[in-house]
């Protein structure tokens, strides 16, 4: 997972993967079928557990808390001391050739799914009267997604966590005031 995260899907060679895993190429292919399947398993691991974006959204008290938790968690995860900087999903999709378009599409589907989940949570808050009725749920969810992707780029460029946290605070200023 860390190799894919650091170098991206295409730049990570099978020889690098087998060396890191301590296996031979035939063992890797027997276990995973191909590099793409191994990559998708690494992505599943990256998105597993309590940090799974959909789980964060579901556990939050409201859409605002979900957005803040997603962005603050990204600022922390993208600047972790034991992981490469930035987001594995963003890093892995950079400069993907036409030969790996299906990998890029799978990553896009994941990112779009998170955005749709957040949008649904925003829409629920609008319906419940917790957000103004004229709130553009689609644009607000896309805004949060864009900020998270921007945080990834900043982290890859060496920005410290404190800077990312300030960006999160600034982004939250765009959140609509609660209805009522």
Short structural description:
The protein has 10 helices and no strands. It is an all-alpha fold and 180 residues long. The model has no long low-confidence stretch (mean pLDDT 92).
Characteristic terms for this protein:
single chain, 180 residues, mainly alpha, Tetracycline Repressor, domain 2
What is the fold-level CATH name, i.e. the topology of the domain at 50-172? Tetracycline Repressor, domain 2
Give the number of helices.
10
Strand content: under 5%
Q: What is Rg?
A: 18 Å
CATH architecture of the domain at 50-172: Orthogonal Bundle
Q: How many beta strands in the DSSP annotation?
A: 0
CATH class of the domain at 50-172: Mainly Alpha
Protein topology:
Layout: H1 2-7, H2 14-21, H3 25-32, H4 35-46, H5 53-59, H6 63-77, H7 88-93, H8 101-127, H9 137-156, H10 161-172
Helix pairs in contact: 5-6, 5-8, 6-8, 6-9, 6-10, 8-9, 9-10
Describe what you observe in this structure.
- This protein has a domain at 50-172: Tetracycline Repressor, domain 2 (Orthogonal Bundle), CATH 1.10.357.
- Helix 6 packs antiparallel against helix 10.
- It has helices spanning 2-7, 14-21, 25-32, 35-46, 53-59, 63-77, 88-93, 101-127, 137-156, 161-172.
- The longest helix is centred in the middle third of the chain and has 27 residues, at 101-127.
- The chain is built from ten helices and no strands.
- With 180 residues, it is mostly helical.
């Amino acid at each position: 997972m860390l190799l894919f995260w650091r170098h991206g899907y295409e730049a990570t060679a099978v020889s690098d993967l087998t060396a890191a895993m301590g296996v031979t190429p035939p063992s890797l292919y027997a276990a995973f079928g191909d590099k793409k399947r191994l990559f998708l398993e690494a992505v599943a691991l990256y998105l597993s557990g309590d940090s799974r974006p959909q789980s964060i959204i579901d556990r939050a008290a409201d859409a605002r808390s979900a957005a803040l938790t997603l962005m603050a968690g990204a600022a922390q995860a993208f600047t972790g001391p034991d992981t490469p900087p930035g987001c594995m999903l963003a890093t892995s999709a950079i400069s993907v050739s036409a030969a790996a378009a299906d990998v890029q599409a799978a990553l896009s589907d994941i990112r779009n799914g998170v955005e749709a989940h957040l949008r649904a949570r925003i829409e629920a808050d609008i319906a419940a009267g917790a957000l103004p009725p004229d709130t553009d749920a689609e644009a607000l969810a896309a805004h949060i997604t864009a900020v998270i992707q921007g945080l990834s780029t900043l982290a890859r460029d060496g920005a410290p966590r404190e800077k990312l946290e300030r960006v999160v605070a600034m982004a939250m200023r765009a959140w609509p005031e609660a209805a009522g």
